[in-house]
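Researcher: Hi, I'm a grad student and pretty new to this. My advisor asked me to get structures for two proteins we've been looking at. I'm not sure of the right format, so I'll just paste the first sequence and hope you can take it from there.
Model: That works fine. Here's the first sequence with its C-alpha coordinates right after it:
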Amino acid sequence: MITKKYEGAKKAAIEEFKIAEKQELVEKPPPPLCCIFGDKNSEFKIRDMMENARKSVYCRTSERYMGYVKKFVKKGITLRLIIMSDGDGPQKQMETLFKTGDVCIRTVSIDQIMDMAGPAEKEAQRKMSSIVDMPDMENMFLLVVDDTEALMVIPIKSNSLNAITSTNGTVVYMMKRWIELNDTANKPPDNH
Protein backbone atom coordinates (compact mmCIF):
# COMPACT_ATOMS: atom_id res chain seq x y z
CA MET A 1 0.00 0.00 0.00
CA ILE A 2 2.88 2.41 0.83
CA THR A 3 4.68 1.49 -2.40
CA LYS A 4 1.52 2.12 -4.40
CA LYS A 5 1.16 5.57 -2.76
CA TYR A 6 4.79 6.52 -3.61
CA GLU A 7 4.45 5.23 -7.18
CA GLY A 8 1.39 7.44 -7.65
CA ALA A 9 3.28 10.48 -6.26
CA LYS A 10 6.21 9.66 -8.58
CA LYS A 11 3.94 9.56 -11.65
CA ALA A 12 2.27 12.84 -10.65
CA ALA A 13 5.69 14.49 -10.18
CA ILE A 14 6.88 13.26 -13.61
CA GLU A 15 3.74 14.72 -15.22
CA GLU A 16 4.36 18.08 -13.50
CA PHE A 17 7.98 18.09 -14.77
CA LYS A 18 6.78 17.37 -18.33
CA ILE A 19 4.38 20.28 -18.16
CA ALA A 20 7.10 22.54 -16.73
CA GLU A 21 9.54 21.56 -19.52
CA LYS A 22 7.09 22.82 -22.13
CA GLN A 23 6.63 26.21 -20.46
CA GLU A 24 8.89 29.11 -21.29
CA LEU A 25 11.06 30.36 -18.51
CA VAL A 26 10.25 33.93 -17.69
CA GLU A 27 13.14 35.82 -16.20
CA LYS A 28 12.39 38.21 -13.42
CA PRO A 29 12.45 41.71 -14.91
CA PRO A 30 15.05 44.07 -13.52
CA PRO A 31 13.80 46.63 -11.03
CA PRO A 32 12.82 50.00 -12.45
CA LEU A 33 15.65 52.49 -12.90
CA CYS A 34 14.04 54.81 -10.39
CA CYS A 35 10.88 55.47 -8.43
CA ILE A 36 9.46 58.89 -7.62
CA PHE A 37 7.94 59.58 -4.22
CA GLY A 38 5.73 62.46 -3.13
CA ASP A 39 5.65 64.26 0.22
CA LYS A 40 4.67 61.68 2.85
CA ASN A 41 6.06 58.70 0.97
CA SER A 42 9.43 60.46 0.69
CA GLU A 43 9.55 60.92 4.46
CA PHE A 44 8.68 57.25 5.03
CA LYS A 45 11.27 56.14 2.46
CA ILE A 46 14.07 58.20 4.02
CA ARG A 47 13.21 56.89 7.48
CA ASP A 48 12.98 53.31 6.20
CA MET A 49 16.35 53.48 4.42
CA MET A 50 18.12 54.91 7.47
CA GLU A 51 16.48 52.57 9.99
CA ASN A 52 17.39 49.53 7.89
CA ALA A 53 21.00 50.50 7.20
CA ARG A 54 23.34 47.66 8.12
CA LYS A 55 26.80 48.75 6.92
CA SER A 56 27.01 52.32 5.69
CA VAL A 57 25.22 55.61 5.20
CA TYR A 58 26.56 58.29 2.84
CA CYS A 59 24.60 61.52 2.99
CA ARG A 60 24.85 65.08 1.77
CA THR A 61 22.20 67.35 3.18
CA SER A 62 21.26 70.96 3.65
CA GLU A 63 20.25 72.11 7.12
CA ARG A 64 16.62 71.70 6.04
CA TYR A 65 16.83 67.89 6.29
CA MET A 66 19.07 67.58 9.36
CA GLY A 67 16.12 66.26 11.38
CA TYR A 68 16.13 63.03 9.38
CA VAL A 69 19.80 62.45 10.07
CA LYS A 70 19.57 63.37 13.78
CA LYS A 71 17.07 60.54 14.30
CA PHE A 72 19.58 58.11 12.84
CA VAL A 73 21.99 57.25 15.63
CA LYS A 74 23.36 53.73 15.23
CA LYS A 75 26.54 52.10 16.34
CA GLY A 76 28.67 50.05 14.01
CA ILE A 77 27.59 51.84 10.83
CA THR A 78 30.00 53.76 8.61
CA LEU A 79 28.69 57.31 8.32
CA ARG A 80 29.90 59.87 5.78
CA LEU A 81 27.93 63.07 6.23
CA ILE A 82 28.40 66.31 4.33
CA ILE A 83 26.35 69.20 5.67
CA MET A 84 25.75 72.13 3.35
CA SER A 85 25.82 75.12 5.66
CA ASP A 86 27.48 78.50 6.03
CA GLY A 87 28.23 77.84 9.71
CA ASP A 88 29.73 74.99 11.73
CA GLY A 89 26.84 74.71 14.24
CA PRO A 90 25.11 71.78 12.50
CA GLN A 91 28.42 69.89 12.24
CA LYS A 92 29.11 70.35 15.97
CA GLN A 93 25.58 69.09 16.76
CA MET A 94 26.11 65.98 14.65
CA GLU A 95 29.57 65.31 16.08
CA THR A 96 27.98 65.38 19.55
CA LEU A 97 25.36 62.83 18.46
CA PHE A 98 27.79 60.58 16.60
CA LYS A 99 30.74 60.50 19.00
CA THR A 100 32.13 57.08 18.19
CA GLY A 101 32.60 54.72 15.29
CA ASP A 102 33.60 55.12 11.69
CA VAL A 103 32.14 58.60 11.32
CA CYS A 104 33.23 61.48 9.10
CA ILE A 105 31.19 64.69 9.27
CA ARG A 106 32.10 67.77 7.23
CA THR A 107 30.55 71.10 6.47
CA VAL A 108 30.68 72.57 2.98
CA SER A 109 29.22 75.96 2.14
CA ILE A 110 26.66 76.17 -0.61
CA ASP A 111 28.92 78.67 -2.37
CA GLN A 112 31.68 76.03 -2.45
CA ILE A 113 29.29 73.54 -4.03
CA MET A 114 28.16 76.07 -6.64
CA ASP A 115 31.78 77.11 -7.35
CA MET A 116 32.60 73.54 -8.41
CA ALA A 117 30.86 74.19 -11.72
CA GLY A 118 33.23 74.73 -14.62
CA PRO A 119 33.17 77.83 -16.86
CA ALA A 120 30.85 76.22 -19.42
CA GLU A 121 28.40 75.16 -16.71
CA LYS A 122 28.45 78.63 -15.14
CA GLU A 123 27.72 80.24 -18.51
CA ALA A 124 24.85 77.81 -19.12
CA GLN A 125 23.45 78.56 -15.64
CA ARG A 126 23.65 82.30 -16.34
CA LYS A 127 21.74 81.90 -19.63
CA MET A 128 19.16 79.55 -18.13
CA SER A 129 18.52 81.65 -15.00
CA SER A 130 16.09 83.87 -16.89
CA ILE A 131 14.10 80.88 -18.11
CA VAL A 132 14.02 78.45 -15.19
CA ASP A 133 14.57 78.52 -11.46
CA MET A 134 18.16 77.78 -10.61
CA PRO A 135 18.98 74.87 -8.31
CA ASP A 136 17.85 75.43 -4.76
CA MET A 137 20.68 73.87 -2.77
CA GLU A 138 18.67 74.38 0.42
CA ASN A 139 16.40 71.66 -0.95
CA MET A 140 19.25 69.16 -1.58
CA PHE A 141 19.35 65.77 0.10
CA LEU A 142 21.38 62.79 -1.15
CA LEU A 143 21.39 59.44 0.61
CA VAL A 144 23.13 56.15 -0.20
CA VAL A 145 22.58 53.20 2.14
CA ASP A 146 24.66 50.01 2.20
CA ASP A 147 25.78 50.65 -1.40
CA THR A 148 22.44 49.15 -2.48
CA GLU A 149 19.94 52.01 -2.59
CA ALA A 150 20.12 55.74 -3.33
CA LEU A 151 17.68 58.57 -2.76
CA MET A 152 17.80 62.15 -3.99
CA VAL A 153 15.61 65.10 -3.19
CA ILE A 154 15.93 67.18 -6.32
CA PRO A 155 17.32 70.68 -5.65
CA ILE A 156 14.42 72.56 -7.18
CA LYS A 157 12.44 75.20 -5.30
CA SER A 158 9.45 73.45 -3.83
CA ASN A 159 7.35 73.44 -0.68
CA SER A 160 6.88 69.70 -0.92
CA LEU A 161 9.34 66.86 -0.45
CA ASN A 162 9.74 64.91 -3.70
CA ALA A 163 12.39 62.23 -3.97
CA ILE A 164 13.78 59.85 -6.56
CA THR A 165 15.08 56.46 -5.41
CA SER A 166 16.95 53.71 -7.18
CA THR A 167 18.43 50.31 -6.48
CA ASN A 168 20.17 50.27 -9.86
CA GLY A 169 23.85 49.59 -9.19
CA THR A 170 25.10 52.24 -11.60
CA VAL A 171 22.83 54.93 -10.17
CA VAL A 172 23.80 54.00 -6.60
CA TYR A 173 27.50 54.11 -7.49
CA MET A 174 27.17 57.49 -9.25
CA MET A 175 25.29 59.04 -6.32
CA LYS A 176 27.86 57.75 -3.82
CA ARG A 177 30.72 59.08 -5.97
CA TRP A 178 28.94 62.44 -6.23
CA ILE A 179 28.82 62.64 -2.43
CA GLU A 180 32.47 61.54 -2.13
CA LEU A 181 33.72 63.88 -4.86
CA ASN A 182 32.04 66.88 -3.30
CA ASP A 183 33.69 65.91 -0.04
CA THR A 184 37.22 65.53 -1.41
CA ALA A 185 36.96 68.55 -3.70
CA ASN A 186 36.26 70.86 -0.75
CA LYS A 187 38.74 69.48 1.79
CA PRO A 188 41.30 71.94 3.03
CA PRO A 189 44.90 71.03 2.14
CA ASP A 190 46.55 68.55 4.49
CA ASN A 191 49.36 70.11 6.54
CA HIS A 192 51.27 66.83 6.99
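Researcher: Oh nice, that was easy. Here's the second one.
Model: And its structure:
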Amino acid sequence: MKPLILLIEGKHANRPSFMVGLTKKGYRVESVANGTLALQSINKRMPKAVVIDAASMRTSGTRICSDLRKRSKKLPLFLILEKSQGVENANCADEVLVMPFTIQKLVNRLKPHVMPNQNRMLEVGPIKLDLEHHWVHCQGRKTRLNPRLFILMKMLMQNPGVVLDRDDMFRKIWETDYMGDTRSLDVHISWLRKAIEKDPRNPVFIKTERGVGYRLETEKPTRPKVLRQK
Protein backbone atom coordinates (compact mmCIF):
# COMPACT_ATOMS: atom_id res chain seq x y z
CA MET A 1 0.00 0.00 0.00
CA LYS A 2 1.22 3.50 -0.82
CA PRO A 3 2.39 5.60 2.16
CA LEU A 4 -0.21 8.06 3.47
CA ILE A 5 0.83 11.71 3.76
CA LEU A 6 -1.34 14.25 5.58
CA LEU A 7 -1.07 17.65 3.89
CA ILE A 8 -2.17 20.78 5.75
CA GLU A 9 -2.61 23.37 3.05
CA GLY A 10 -4.42 26.69 2.81
CA LYS A 11 -5.90 28.51 -0.16
CA HIS A 12 -3.55 31.48 -0.34
CA ALA A 13 -0.69 29.93 -2.33
CA ASN A 14 -0.04 31.37 -5.80
CA ARG A 15 1.22 28.00 -6.99
CA PRO A 16 -0.03 24.44 -7.57
CA SER A 17 -0.95 22.31 -4.59
CA PHE A 18 1.68 19.91 -3.26
CA MET A 19 -1.05 17.26 -3.35
CA VAL A 20 -0.69 16.92 -7.12
CA GLY A 21 3.07 16.45 -7.04
CA LEU A 22 3.07 14.02 -4.10
CA THR A 23 0.33 11.94 -5.71
CA LYS A 24 2.33 11.71 -8.93
CA LYS A 25 5.33 10.57 -6.88
CA GLY A 26 3.39 7.59 -5.56
CA TYR A 27 1.97 8.76 -2.25
CA ARG A 28 -1.59 8.70 -0.96
CA VAL A 29 -2.37 12.24 0.14
CA GLU A 30 -5.12 13.49 2.43
CA SER A 31 -5.47 17.27 2.39
CA VAL A 32 -6.97 19.37 5.19
CA ALA A 33 -7.20 23.14 5.59
CA ASN A 34 -6.05 23.65 9.19
CA GLY A 35 -4.53 22.12 12.31
CA THR A 36 -7.87 21.27 13.93
CA LEU A 37 -8.90 19.15 10.96
CA ALA A 38 -5.45 17.60 10.92
CA LEU A 39 -5.83 16.40 14.51
CA GLN A 40 -9.23 14.96 13.70
CA SER A 41 -7.75 13.10 10.74
CA ILE A 42 -4.87 11.69 12.80
CA ASN A 43 -7.31 10.40 15.40
CA LYS A 44 -8.92 8.30 12.67
CA ARG A 45 -5.76 6.97 11.00
CA MET A 46 -2.12 7.81 11.52
CA PRO A 47 -0.23 9.00 8.41
CA LYS A 48 3.41 8.28 7.72
CA ALA A 49 4.20 12.01 7.82
CA VAL A 50 2.55 15.44 7.94
CA VAL A 51 3.43 18.24 5.54
CA ILE A 52 2.45 21.66 6.92
CA ASP A 53 2.35 24.23 4.13
CA ALA A 54 2.50 27.30 6.36
CA ALA A 55 3.45 29.39 3.33
CA SER A 56 -0.05 28.82 1.97
CA MET A 57 -1.81 29.69 5.23
CA ARG A 58 -0.19 33.04 6.14
CA THR A 59 1.00 31.56 9.42
CA SER A 60 4.32 30.42 10.90
CA GLY A 61 2.95 26.91 11.41
CA THR A 62 4.58 26.60 14.82
CA ARG A 63 1.24 26.32 16.67
CA ILE A 64 0.15 23.52 14.34
CA CYS A 65 3.49 21.76 14.80
CA SER A 66 3.22 22.04 18.58
CA ASP A 67 -0.31 20.62 18.66
CA LEU A 68 0.64 17.72 16.39
CA ARG A 69 3.76 17.00 18.42
CA LYS A 70 1.64 16.72 21.57
CA ARG A 71 -0.50 14.16 19.75
CA SER A 72 2.47 12.09 18.58
CA LYS A 73 6.14 12.62 19.42
CA LYS A 74 7.30 10.26 16.66
CA LEU A 75 5.19 11.53 13.77
CA PRO A 76 7.50 13.21 11.20
CA LEU A 77 6.54 16.85 10.64
CA PHE A 78 7.60 18.81 7.55
CA LEU A 79 7.16 22.58 7.69
CA ILE A 80 7.11 24.68 4.51
CA LEU A 81 7.83 28.39 4.88
CA GLU A 82 8.36 31.46 2.75
CA LYS A 83 11.76 33.18 2.94
CA SER A 84 10.20 36.11 4.77
CA GLN A 85 8.88 33.87 7.56
CA GLY A 86 12.29 32.73 8.82
CA VAL A 87 13.02 29.45 10.61
CA GLU A 88 14.00 30.66 14.09
CA ASN A 89 10.88 29.24 15.76
CA ALA A 90 10.54 26.10 13.67
CA ASN A 91 12.31 23.73 16.06
CA CYS A 92 9.17 21.65 16.54
CA ALA A 93 9.37 20.33 12.95
CA ASP A 94 11.63 17.49 11.84
CA GLU A 95 12.36 19.19 8.54
CA VAL A 96 11.97 22.79 7.39
CA LEU A 97 11.86 23.68 3.70
CA VAL A 98 11.93 27.27 2.49
CA MET A 99 10.22 28.22 -0.75
CA PRO A 100 10.95 27.94 -3.58
CA PHE A 101 11.97 24.29 -4.05
CA THR A 102 11.07 21.39 -6.31
CA ILE A 103 8.67 18.59 -5.44
CA GLN A 104 11.61 16.20 -5.78
CA LYS A 105 13.39 17.94 -2.91
CA LEU A 106 10.34 17.43 -0.72
CA VAL A 107 10.17 13.76 -1.75
CA ASN A 108 13.88 13.31 -0.97
CA ARG A 109 13.31 14.69 2.52
CA LEU A 110 10.25 12.48 3.03
CA LYS A 111 11.84 9.19 2.01
CA PRO A 112 14.05 8.57 5.08
CA HIS A 113 11.01 9.07 7.33
CA VAL A 114 8.28 7.49 5.25
CA MET A 115 10.23 4.45 4.09
CA PRO A 116 12.58 3.83 7.06
CA ASN A 117 12.99 0.12 6.31
CA GLN A 118 15.41 1.13 3.60
CA ASN A 119 17.74 2.72 6.14
CA ARG A 120 20.57 0.78 7.75
CA MET A 121 21.18 1.95 11.30
CA LEU A 122 24.18 1.50 13.56
CA GLU A 123 23.04 1.34 17.18
CA VAL A 124 25.09 1.64 20.36
CA GLY A 125 23.16 2.14 23.58
CA PRO A 126 20.78 5.09 23.10
CA ILE A 127 22.60 6.35 20.01
CA LYS A 128 21.51 5.42 16.48
CA LEU A 129 23.37 6.40 13.33
CA ASP A 130 21.67 6.34 9.93
CA LEU A 131 24.38 4.89 7.67
CA GLU A 132 22.70 6.06 4.48
CA HIS A 133 21.45 9.55 5.24
CA HIS A 134 23.91 10.45 8.04
CA TRP A 135 21.37 11.32 10.73
CA VAL A 136 22.36 10.68 14.35
CA HIS A 137 19.52 10.01 16.81
CA CYS A 138 19.98 10.34 20.56
CA GLN A 139 17.66 11.11 23.49
CA GLY A 140 14.80 12.26 21.31
CA ARG A 141 16.99 14.52 19.17
CA LYS A 142 18.32 13.98 15.68
CA THR A 143 20.95 15.86 13.71
CA ARG A 144 22.23 15.46 10.18
CA LEU A 145 26.02 15.14 10.19
CA ASN A 146 28.42 16.43 7.58
CA PRO A 147 30.79 13.83 6.05
CA ARG A 148 33.61 14.20 8.59
CA LEU A 149 31.30 14.27 11.58
CA PHE A 150 29.61 11.16 10.24
CA ILE A 151 32.94 9.31 9.91
CA LEU A 152 33.92 10.44 13.41
CA MET A 153 30.61 9.32 14.94
CA LYS A 154 30.80 5.99 13.14
CA MET A 155 34.37 5.44 14.31
CA LEU A 156 33.42 6.03 17.94
CA MET A 157 30.32 3.84 17.71
CA GLN A 158 32.26 0.97 16.19
CA ASN A 159 34.59 1.03 19.20
CA PRO A 160 32.41 1.68 22.28
CA GLY A 161 34.38 1.91 25.52
CA VAL A 162 37.69 1.98 23.65
CA VAL A 163 39.99 4.98 23.90
CA LEU A 164 40.85 6.02 20.36
CA ASP A 165 44.19 7.71 19.82
CA ARG A 166 43.60 11.26 18.61
CA ASP A 167 46.48 11.15 16.09
CA ASP A 168 45.11 7.96 14.56
CA MET A 169 41.65 9.49 14.41
CA PHE A 170 42.99 12.58 12.69
CA ARG A 171 44.89 10.53 10.09
CA LYS A 172 41.86 8.43 9.21
CA ILE A 173 39.31 11.25 9.09
CA TRP A 174 41.45 13.81 7.26
CA GLU A 175 43.28 11.12 5.22
CA THR A 176 46.68 12.65 5.81
CA ASP A 177 49.91 11.93 7.66
CA TYR A 178 50.48 15.63 8.32
CA MET A 179 50.02 16.16 12.04
CA GLY A 180 50.82 19.87 12.24
CA ASP A 181 47.46 20.87 13.74
CA THR A 182 45.06 18.31 15.17
CA ARG A 183 42.89 20.94 16.85
CA SER A 184 40.42 20.49 14.01
CA LEU A 185 39.61 17.11 15.57
CA ASP A 186 38.82 18.77 18.90
CA VAL A 187 36.50 21.23 17.15
CA HIS A 188 34.68 18.38 15.40
CA ILE A 189 34.34 16.53 18.70
CA SER A 190 32.73 19.65 20.21
CA TRP A 191 30.27 19.81 17.28
CA LEU A 192 29.45 16.13 17.71
CA ARG A 193 28.80 16.66 21.41
CA LYS A 194 26.36 19.42 20.55
CA ALA A 195 24.51 16.93 18.34
CA ILE A 196 24.09 14.16 20.94
CA GLU A 197 24.74 15.55 24.41
CA LYS A 198 22.17 17.34 26.55
CA ASP A 199 25.01 19.34 28.12
CA PRO A 200 27.99 19.43 25.70
CA ARG A 201 30.21 21.01 28.38
CA ASN A 202 29.63 18.03 30.65
CA PRO A 203 29.47 15.16 28.15
CA VAL A 204 27.96 11.84 29.12
CA PHE A 205 28.74 9.91 25.94
CA ILE A 206 31.91 11.29 24.32
CA LYS A 207 34.64 11.32 26.94
CA THR A 208 38.11 12.88 26.70
CA GLU A 209 41.15 10.92 27.81
CA ARG A 210 43.68 13.70 28.32
CA GLY A 211 46.86 13.23 26.37
CA VAL A 212 45.47 10.18 24.58
CA GLY A 213 42.19 10.67 22.72
CA TYR A 214 38.47 10.06 22.97
CA ARG A 215 36.09 7.23 23.78
CA LEU A 216 32.37 6.61 23.46
CA GLU A 217 30.74 5.66 26.76
CA THR A 218 27.18 4.41 27.18
CA GLU A 219 25.22 3.57 30.31
CA LYS A 220 25.75 -0.13 29.81
CA PRO A 221 28.71 -1.76 28.03
CA THR A 222 27.48 -2.86 24.64
CA ARG A 223 28.77 -4.01 21.30
CA PRO A 224 27.73 -2.10 18.19
CA LYS A 225 25.12 -3.70 16.00
CA VAL A 226 23.83 -2.85 12.56
CA LEU A 227 20.10 -3.20 12.17
CA ARG A 228 17.20 -2.36 9.97
CA GLN A 229 15.17 0.52 11.34
CA LYS A 230 11.64 -0.54 12.18
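Researcher: Is there anything I should tell my advisor about the second?
Model: You could mention this: The longest strand covers residues 4-9.
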